[in-house]
Design a protein that fits this description.
Elements: H1 3-15, H2 18-25, H3 29-43, E1 48-50, E2 55-57, H4 59-83, E3 90-96, H5 101-115, E4 119-125, H6 128-136, E5 142-146, E6 154-170, E7 190-194, H7 202-206, E8 214-219, H8 222-230, E9 235-239, H9 240-243, E10 251-255, E11 261-269, H10 276-291
Parallel strand pairs: 3-4, 3-5, 7-8, 7-9
Antiparallel strand pairs: 1-2, 5-11, 6-9, 6-10, 6-11
Helix pairs in contact: 1-2, 1-4, 5-10
Length: 292
Amino acid sequence: MEYRVLKYFLTVAREENITRAAEVLHLSQPALSRQLMQLEDELGAKLFERGKRSITLTDAGMLLRRRAQEIVDLTEKTEREFQSAGTLGGVISIGSGEAETMRFLAGAMESFSRQYPEVKFDLYSNNADFIKERLDRGLLDIGVLLEPGDLSKYEYIRLKDRERWGALVPRKCPLAEKESVRAEDLIGHRVFMPKRAQAQGVVAWFGDLYEKLDVYVSYNLLYNAAMLVDCGIGAALTIEGAAALYKNPNTVFRPFSPQLSVSSVLVWKKYQPMTPAAAAFIEHLKKTAAQY
């Protein structure tokens, strides 16, 4: 498979139309169709279901789309790294969830940029599973994770600040009148549960009461769950730093009682060669964290 053809395939998958894709790629439609058929022959699999006005991916096509995107991302990242060889420039890729840690990271990025203005950043927002997967595949230089978690594959910097767990609730909900919420307070309310709640100790915090919860929604990042809270249909369990991002007068954050808190870690994969820019930024993070 050629890199060029994979980019053609991804464009067609995005546009869902051969004619539009050919226009984007500045190719003739017959030439693009021929490249796609050759790719299907090479893989021995049908990648598209071709309709009159649009095309859709088959199961094999969806698998290739994911793999092709990873290959293209890694190839482009490698090209940027070699283009910046000999100078402290290029792009540093960082993955993070929604957390107060981003304020620390923002300060470190700003002070680093004053020294090295040619360095830029790619920021990916997602949960820990996504971040670890991209770290392991070499698609991210640095990740921001919450403990507890398995850090055996990573070097890391543990930050001093801790994030409190709690519930983001509608202001008109009876829970908003409390200074903090206990596990039993959430029984009878619709609960929006983050997908990594078990790994973060939230399920254990509820103990036997967890089975009595009405887990109405599971979610990845808080934004859409916070919109549901704003609509008054339930309470989202989250860390305080994520809730603080949503300045909404219709919702309030109430911490758990007894308190459940977690620390943040900045991680990067062990034994993975680093670009000069990424290596310099990690050293800068270490110094910044020591003074934090």
